[in-house]
User: Fold this.
Amino acid sequence: MYRGIRCRSGKWVSEIREPRKTTRIWLGTFQTPEMAAAAYDVAALALKGSDAVLNFPGSVATYPVPASTSAVDIRNAATAAAALKKAELSNNQLLRQSQNDDSTMNAGLTSGTEYLDEEAIFDMPNLLVDMAEGMLVSPPRINSSDDSLGNSDGGESLWSYI
Assistant:
């Protein structure tokens, strides 16, 4: 769970307490917990400075900076940060989806442990059956040109010792 957010009626809300006061700044209602957490991070940076405990410390450089420490400016910057987080999440989701699509298409070619259907690839529905039948057929007889049962070289046949 993230700091400064809570779920209310299926949506995520974010607010922050002003330092040394009993009042809170309402940051807004958001679709995802990550968006609400990003809004809290912007407000925490504006009110508490670099000592603030953040939900996404790696995203500090991408957050908008409020024009002042007034509630309206902090709320506007928080809303902008939530929009940035939403765009980042949708880009990450699209990237993961395209990677999954690529890995699904190349699964038979890249992984040695997965089943590769040769019959479907070569469009030969009975490939394995035909190969098995080919192994069961005896080789064709080679007939000599002079219709004799003996060898043409006059030597003994290999089969005569059996």
